[in-house]
Every structure is written in C-alpha cells, then in structure tokens.
Design goal:
4 helices; 2 strands
Length: 110
C-alpha cells in the first residue's frame, strides 16, 4: 500500500467510488486519460492515419493533418476523444483503406 485510500458506496460497492492518492480508477476495462505522445498505441494510430492520407480528398487531408498536429500536442481528454472521432469518421467514409485507422482508434478506447 502506498497510502492510497478508496471509499466505495452503493449496492454491491460498484455504485460510486471516491479515490484519493495517486493512480487511476478503471472500471469495465476502459482506458482512462490520454496516452502520452510516445505511447505505442498512439504511434500506431498516427502511422495508420498517415497511411490513409493518400486516399483522402484535399479537404479531408487538411482536416486530418490538423488533427495529427493537435493530437501530438497532448490535448485534454475531451479534445483527444473528439480527435479520435474525427479520424474514425473520415476512415469510415473511405472504406477499406480506413479499416486500420478504425482498429487503432478502438485499441485506444479499450
């Protein structure tokens, strides 16, 4: 124990959790927080997005380029999730070439 304290309330002790100390509480296997700029999952996503670029029209390519730049600057969790939706939305529209991007987004979301 490192001095962390956990207090849980609710039926079956799953209703609500309060946490004080270090670390994250993760329930249901979901990712919490934004991966660091050099993380393998984020590198994989960016590699797949770059591979998708030649299949995009000029407008989508500009949007993807702006999102790549922003996601590399460690945005807030809410903004990070919006950027992931940008990548996956564009990837879904282009079909087969976008499938690896969608898989990489899913891996980041847990």
């Amino acid at each position: 124990m490192s001095g962390d304290q956990y207090t849980q309330y609710g039926p079956g002790s799953i209703g609500r959790a309060e946490h004080s100390g270090s670390g994250d509480i993760v329930a249901g296997g979901k990712h919490v927080g934004v991966p660091q700029a050099g993380s393998p999952e984020l590198r994989k996503l960016l590699d797949e997005v770059r591979a998708m670029r030649p299949h995009l029209d000029e407008g989508d390519r500009a949007e993807v380029d702006a999102a790549i730049e922003e996601i590399s600057s460690n945005p807030s969790e809410g903004r990070f999730n919006k950027l992931l939706r940008t990548f996956s939305g564009i990837a879904a529209l282009i079909g087969e070439a976008g499938v690896p991007v969608i898989a990489a987004v899913k891996a980041l979301l847990g």
